[in-house]
Each structure stands twice: as structure tokens, then as C-alpha cells.
Amino acid sequence: MPLKEIQSVLLDKKEEYLEQLFILLRQKSISTQNDGITDCAELLKNIMEEIGINTKIMKTDGHPVVYGEMLKDENAFTLLFYGHYDVQPPDPLDEWLSPPFEPTIRDGRIYARGAGDNKGQLMATLLGIKTYIDLFEDLPINIKFLFEGEEENGSPHLASFVKENKELLKADLVYTADGSSHNSDSPLILLGARGSLQLELKATEAKWDNHSGNTGNIVPNPAWRLIDLLQTMRDKDGNVLIEGFYDHIRKPSPKEQELLQTLPFDADDIGEKIGYPGLEMDGENYYHKLTMEPTFNIAGIYSGYSGEGVKTIIPSTAAVKLDVRLVVDQDPADIYNKICRHVEKHDPGIEVKHLVSMEPSRTPADLDIVEVVTNAVFGAYQKEPLLQPSLGSSLPVYVWTNILNTPSIIVPYANFDQRNHSPNENIKMDYFFDGIQCTCHVVHQLGEYAKNL
Q1: pTM listed for this prediction
Q2: Cis peptide leading into 118, omega within 30 of 0?
Q3: Rounded CA separation 101/45 (Å)
Q4: What is the DSSP letter of 391?
Q5: Distance CA 453, CA 447 (A)
Q6: What average pLDDT score do residues 357-372 get?
Q7: Do 324 and 338 touch, CB atoms closer than 8 A?
Q8: Whole-angstrom Cα distance, residue 295 to residue 357?
Q9: What contacts 361, CB < 8 A, 6 or more positions away?
Q10: pLDDT tens digits for 237-281?
Q11: Cβ count within 10 A of residue 358
Q12: Do the Cβ atoms of 404 and 162 come closer than 8 Å?
């Protein structure tokens, strides 16, 4: 009976819950610039303690982790919630319709940096626990929380933190509310994430920029060196030409292949929502490319002068940042070494710099716990959730599946068009409150499941 009262509780608590979210959104926490991180960790700790969560801030070799727990019995089923309190820089500021750290409601959406990624979803998780306790006066399972401050920087210290605290973090399931819901507005369950490898290639010629007339045809241009190298790395059809790049890719299981074939697909709708109306692809191909294939992307390329007007120079340096997404069972270190060997073969004078990497992960779709969470999400939304084998982007869920040896499930609470990492990031208010409700249902269903273990 109490689960049916969630909607009335949310209606009564609407303004209170929004203000709690806004308090967190107002606090800067830009991990790449170390802006507001410590203050945000302290603020989050206070918010959790007010809910009744036993909370502490724990050091890492980088930004701190906020850890909390509500334990019933050391032998009880344990759910670990993962999220992150850091955000991306808000630039370019002039494209925001309202200040990025002053949460603003427009047309049923909350606009602010971190509204969708990940403070809105993090708060929906915490307020879901608060709501459940208000309704039931107790929790049916053990719950742990780990909120990190470096996800937007590639989570460089999370793996070492998890290795050092395996006993503390021991759990039966790790649950993450992050990412975007399906473009169809159906609830979505993700069983993994692609890994990533970020690196930079840099070419250098002269010691300084030269006049393009006085030294034209004399001083070589490093940008052309990079272009020549890049054309040896990928063909015009998008196939990566680096030797061994496609080795060690796990084929989808029959169950995963079935999921890919049954996911709804509307090319026109997706094209409109991602700003690319020229999208021409069938659903099975779309989902296979998004979840089961690696990528080799140029994230940025820069050299010389690109401002207003003309500056006639031959630049001294040129660089390109590569963003490579990897799938199970590719190893970022192995791919990095293969790229280095490729560069050494074609242009050994170009410098290769490793920036950050993350391993891919995937939880089997046929586990009992996946069905339990699927039923819980259905109960919350009264709509059949879509089950997708992997997230297209990257999250550090490998630390749970590969280090803790624990299944990991991602249930995005934010809307598909949340514009995370972009100006005017937002979360729909309905999605925020639905996330609170979903958290309640997941905790309750896991409690029922644990009774039969």
C-alpha cells in the first residue's frame, strides 16, 4: 500500500525537493578546473546526513569521494548506488539562456549545469531513499552510496580507490542513475558502457610560427603531417586501419542480439533530437554501432590561427585530440600501444600523449537481478522498460564488474535531450520526480527479492 502513496508524497514535497536540488546545483563543482569541488563534497555530505545516511568524505589521489551507508544486517542484500557530483565547465557562457549555476525553471524543465549530469539524477536517488523511509519507516536492504568528484575528468582515481576499499564497498548489485533516457521516452535499462581512450598527437616543425610568404615552400607545415598520418589511420568508410584495432571484440550473445533487434527506432526523431536530420540508418545497425562497435573520433584539431580576419603564418605546431570508444573485451592499454606502433611506423617524429582511459564493461542480460530491476522500473513508470546491452558513451562501471565482481545496472533518470556537456543543460521536472519514484520501487523490489535468497 505505501508504494501507491509515493505520488501524493511527491506532490506535497515538490517545492521542498526542488529547493534541495537547487542548493546542490548552485554549488560549482568543475572537476577539470578544481573549482568548488571540496565545497560541493561537504555540501553533499550534509545533505546525506540530513536524510539519515552515515556519511564521510574519503580521500583519493585526486578529488574526494563522498561515501555513505545505511546498514541493517551485514548478511542482508546490499545495494550500492554510484553517481558523481562533479560537472563539466559551462562554456560557452554566452549560449546559456540563464546563468549555468542559477537553476531556472522554464517550460517544465530545470536548467543548470549538472541538472541532468549528474546532480539531478543523484538527488533523485537520495530523495528516493528519503521518500521510502518516510513511507515505510525502514529500509528492506543494506544501502551504500559512492559519489565521486572526477567522473567528468575520466575517473582517473576511482579504480585504485575501489581496489583499496573492496571490503567497504562489497555489494550484491551496483545501481547507477546516469545518462539519458531513450529518445522514445520509454524508461531505459543499460547493462554496460563502452570504454574510452583519450590521447593527443602532436607534430612540431619550426621553433616558432613563420611568415607564410617569406618562408613559404621553405618551412614545412606540421598540420599537413597530421593530416597525412590521420589518413593512414582510417579509411573513407570509417574503418580503422590500425593493425589489430578490431581484435578481442566480444560478439553479442543471442540474448543481446535479440535486445538490439527489438529496441524501437525512429531515425527522423533521433536525427531531430541530436541535430543531425540527415541520419539514415536502420534500427539494428544503429544500436549495434552504438553499443557493440568501437569508435575512432577526432575530438579536436588545432594549429595556427583561427580567429577573425587573416594571419598569414606557417604554424610551428599542430595537434589532434583523439577520442576512442572501446567495447568488451578491448583493452585501452593494448589499443594505445597499437596506435603508438602505427605512428612509429608512419611518422615517428609525431609525439603521442596518453590522456585518460577507461575499460569497457557489460553485465549479462540473463541474470535474475536484471529481471528484478526490470520489474521494479516497470512498476515505477507503468511502462515496459527497454533493455539495452550497453551505453554508447563511457562510465566507469568496469570498477564494479571487473574489480568488485558485482553486476552493474544503469537506469537513466534524465531526458534524452538533456544537453549534458552543452549550454542549457536541463532535466525535465517530470523525469526528476519519476526518478525519485523509480528509486523507491527498485529498493522495494530488491527487498522482496532478498526474502527468497
Answers
A1: 0.89
A2: yes
A3: 20
A4: B
A5: 10
A6: 95
A7: no
A8: 14
A9: 192, 193, 195, 328, 397, 398, 400, 401, 402, 408
A10: 999 999 999 999 999 999 999 999 999 999 998 898 888 999 999
A11: 26
A12: yes
